[in-house]
Amino acid sequence: SCPDLPPPAGAPAADRGRRGGLQMPVAVVCLACDHVDRSTEENFEQTLDKKAAGADAAGKGNQLVSPAERSRLQEFVKDFAKCAVRKIECEVVDGGSGIIFPAYYSIDANLSKLKLQRSAPLANQESVYRELDLDKIRDILDFEAARHQLPEAALRAVEVEAEGVEGDRARDRLLVVSSSDGTPQTYLLESSAVDRNRFIMCVKILRLYAKWAQGPDIERSRPP
What we know:
Layout (H helix, E strand, L loop, with lengths): L3 E2 L21 E2 L9 H20 L9 H19 L2 E6 L6 E8 L5 E6 L9 E6 L3 E5 L1 H4 L5 H9 L9 H4 E6 L6 E4 L3 H22 L1 H5 L4
Helix pairs in contact: 1-6, 2-6
């Protein structure tokens, strides 16, 4: 995963990523992503900036945060998305069997799809495990919020899985992604609870951008 950098000197304590909360670090850097196609990265940044501007122009969230905080949040999401475009390691829990296997997730340069791929697929397996349309994602829940709807096999697997690289239990790293188009729920394990919280916040914002890229009327037509 992309390691977190500490806030700059003088930053308030609330800026620091805290386990179990949604406070986020100031910056995210993908240290494994130095060798990339810069033209692709520029196109991706332009796409993200346009989608963010479209959502802002529509007034989404403007009443809740200051312009400075909104700008900071957009930069945070951009840093996350840069890493995700280049792939981020994770684990996936198969809801039917409870098997946990290494994988990675990525977001396409158009910021429209979230793809999960097996790191080491078997001979009879496709490398792509699941592909989700960002604008069709209905919700992203942590373990406590999703516990009542977890399949028994997935629940058992998460309860006995070893700690992650940051020492967090599997249940504290779990993400449950559900979609509105009938795609089965996806059970993803991030590297840490902080990474889990970052994923929840950033992908929800990217979902908003994806919806507005499809047209503001789509979002306005949804019930509150």
